[in-house]
């Protein structure tokens, strides 16, 4: 099987992120609106002081306790939506909507094993659970970025950390349209080829 091109993987992930973001706008929109209202006095005062050239933080209004609760709810809903979108579809077919559009698929490294819910969850949790660390100076986003960037450097299977955790690899479903008949890529781009 031919490994999926990195460009197709990135585009598939961007499509999936867009769809999950759209779901969050619908489901999480009210909570985000309430959160913005709760922190608006603080952010307005910080902005006013920045324009005035003031660097002091004394006397800043405090965000309400409800803002902290709303932030937790927003993150929980975001993670739950992403989980519901990605884990069952990868477990059942090896594809999210983005992967289907790009003609790529997640498969287990050992052909004799099923992808299944457990493997799909293990694969997703390396990428999905760091969302809870987004509010910690962006540590969660940094973890996700490093996870996904590993595919650009990993050889020979181009696995991200979440692929390694789930013992999966992403493959192309069909050869490219401009490939000569019978061609399925170079031996280094195939699972089971000399580079494997």
UniProtKB/TrEMBL annotation:
It comes from Plantactinospora endophytica. The chain crosses the membrane at residues 12-33, 69-85, 131-153. Residues 174-196 are annotated as: Disordered. It comes from the Bacteria. It holds the Pfam family RDD. Keywords: Cell membrane, Membrane, Transmembrane, Transmembrane helix. Residues 4-165 form the RDD domain. PANTHER family: MEMBRANE PROTEIN, PROLINE-RICH ANTIGEN HOMOLOG-RELATED. This is RDD domain-containing protein. InterPro entries: Pra-immunoreactive, RDD. Residues 187-196 have a biased composition (Basic and acidic residues). Its main location: membrane. Coiled coil: none annotated. It is a multi-pass membrane protein. It is found in: Cell membrane.
């Amino acid at each position: 099987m031919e490994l999926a091109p990195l460009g197709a993987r990135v585009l598939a992930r961007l499509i999936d992120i867009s769809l999950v973001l759209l779901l969050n706008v619908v489901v999480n929109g009210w909570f985000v609106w309430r959160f913005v209202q709760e922190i608006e006095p603080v952010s307005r005062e910080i902005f006013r002081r920045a324009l005035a050239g003031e660097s002091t933080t004394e006397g800043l209004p405090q965000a309400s306790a409800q803002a902290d609760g709303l932030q937790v709810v927003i993150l929980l809903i975001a993670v739950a939506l992403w989980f519901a979108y990605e884990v069952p579809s990868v477990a059942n077919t090896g594809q999210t909507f983005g992967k289907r559009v790009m003609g790529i698929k997640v498969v287990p490294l050992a052909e004799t094993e099923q992808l299944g819910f457990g493997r799909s969850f293990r694969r997703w949790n390396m990428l999905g659970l760091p969302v809870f660390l987004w509010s910690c100076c962006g540590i969660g986003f940094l973890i996700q970025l490093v996870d996904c960037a590993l595919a650009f450097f990993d050889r020979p299977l181009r696995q991200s950390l979440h692929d390694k955790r789930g013992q999966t690899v992403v493959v192309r479903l069909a050869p490219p349209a401009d490939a000569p008949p019978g061609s399925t890529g170079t031996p280094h781009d195939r699972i089971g080829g000399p580079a494997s």
